[in-house]
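Inverse folding, one chain.
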């Protein structure tokens, strides 16, 4: 995949990224929720598309997908009952460009989406975003106590390459813990 030009990235700041969701009536096991679209994702129309983002390799290595998917193949997730959304809709170069108010509002909108779509699990990939959006400063990685209707919540570390202090193997292990809970054999 060729990287977008600087002009394409700048134009992507105003381009929302559509959710990837199973169709009505289809099984919906896990909704992965990123913090917000990065500019490469917004420019390409594909979630977790920035080179160096570890989401797709970690999703595969943890057992959620039978093969490594490219961001352009994100639609294939729905056949396995998986989906992707974002906490905040505004594309940015870095998640720290978002305000707390945007994350809180995004959390409110996310709750509505989860109530309508009713996945078994909501997996928020980003501890800080979850803590801010859900007002839970003590949250840790793993299953959370609160639910949204019947949907359970699991917090995962952010797979962004910018979160380099969290090694890839630990990401795989955390995603695999969720997979074991969400897709028992």
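Residues assigned per position:
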């Amino acid at each position: 995949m060729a990287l977008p030009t600087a002009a394409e990235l700048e134009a992507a700041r105003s381009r929302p990224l559509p959710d990837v969701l199973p169709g009505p009536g289809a099984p919906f096991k896990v909704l992965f929720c990123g913090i917000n679209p990065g500019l490469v994702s917004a420019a390409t129309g594909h979630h977790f598309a920035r080179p160096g983002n570890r989401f797709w390799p970690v999703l595969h290595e943890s057992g959620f997908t039978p093969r490594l998917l490219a961001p352009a193949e994100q639609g294939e997730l729905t056949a396995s009952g998986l989906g992707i959304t974002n906490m905040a809709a505004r594309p940015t170069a870095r998640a720290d460009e978002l305000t707390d108010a945007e994350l809180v509002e995004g959390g409110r909108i996310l709750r509505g989406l989860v109530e309508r779509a009713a996945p078994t699990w909501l997996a928020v990939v980003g501890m800080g975003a979850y803590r801010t959006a859900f007002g839970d400063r003590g949250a840790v990685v793993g299953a959370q106590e609160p639910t949204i209707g019947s949907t359970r919540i699991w917090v995962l570390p952010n797979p962004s390459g910018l979160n380099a202090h969290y090694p890839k193997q630990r990401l795989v292990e955390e995603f695999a813990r969720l997979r074991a809970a969400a897709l028992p054999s």
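The chain has one domain: 31-90+100-182. The first strand starts at residue 30 and ends at 34.
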